[in-house]
Design brief:
The protein is mainly α and 271 residues long. It is built from eleven helices and no strands. The chain is globular and about 65 Å long.
Length: 271
């Protein structure tokens, strides 16, 4: 069970590291510089522009991690002595970790926001209180959910920590995000719901193929990777239909790194 928690945590760290850690590390110097110059309006605007791509990626990633947890663990880990029972032991805490991915991401960046404002006391005090609450919840939830209760306790307390820091920051700055942010989040949630609907409709078939020993292993795993691609495409299509600006911004950044010839062909196809 200790190993199962470690394996589940490593899977959580993949999207968390790519999304939250990278974004928060890059934006920290900019926020610190803006605060030191007393540019509060630009500070809030920069934070708003940072939170949008963070949530745009974290919300569907967390939902996907929760919905395909068992299949993902089977793809990456199940081999040899790591059998079906091992997959179940890892997938259960991974479900709770996936549900809390947004909370982990927000905690990561909001902590750095306080550091950028030269306030180390608030995140430290909040962190200490979170640890105490986590220990209490662990003692309670482990009785019902076994080792997965530890994952649930950590997710609940981390999300609470993010909420507390958000409220403190809003009180201090007069507003963390710009007008229309709640409506924007709703669009991301709707796009994620579209992806989730496709997953729920097809995950049974995906699991049947993945566990069919009569099918070649490479074919089974390739089918699952293909399914992941379709789920990602479903989210992209839903985001495009909802006109979420972050999709266009990310697409522009990706295409800007392509060779000039490839970019010209894309411009011809998509004027």
């Amino acid at each position: 069970r200790v190993s199962a928690l470690n394996y589940a945590w490593q899977l959580l760290m993949l999207p968390h590291g790519v999304i939250a850690l990278s974004i928060s590390t890059v934006i920290f110097p900019t926020l610190a510089a803006l605060y030191s110059h007393g540019n509060d309006a630009e500070f809030r605007a920069t934070l708003d522009r940072t939170l949008r791509p963070l949530l745009f990626l974290s919300i569907p990633a967390g939902a996907g991690l929760f919905l395909v947890r068992e299949q993902l663990v089977r793809l990456i880990y199940q081999s040899g002595s790591f059998d079906g029972r091992s997959t179940e032991l890892v997938a259960t805490p991974l479900a709770f970790f996936g549900l809390g991915l947004v909370g982990y991401a927000l905690t990561e960046i909001l902590t750095r926001v306080f550091y950028a404002t030269r306030d180390t006391r608030t995140p430290v005090i909040t962190g200490v209180l979170t640890v105490i609450a986590n220990l209490i919840l662990c003692a309670i939830l482990i009785q019902t959910y076994d080792h997965a209760g530890l994952a649930l306790a950590l997710t609940v307390t981390t999300c609470a920590e993010a909420l507390i820091m958000w409220l403190f920051l809003r009180q201090r700055t007069g507003g963390v995000v710009s007008a229309g942010f709640a409506q924007w989040v709703l669009k991301v949630v709707l796009a994620t719901a579209g992806m989730a609907a496709l997953i729920l409709l097809t995950i049974g078939k995906v699991q049947d193929v993945q566990t069919d020993e009569g099918i070649n292993l490479i074919v089974r795993e390739a089918f699952f990777i293909y399914a992941l691609g379709m789920y990602l495409l479903a989210f992209v299509v839903c985001a495009w239909l909802l006109r979420i600006p972050e999709l266009e911004h990310m697409a522009a950044r990706i295409t800007s790194r392509l060779p000039a010839g490839v970019r010209r062909r894309l411009e011809l196809l998509l004027p």
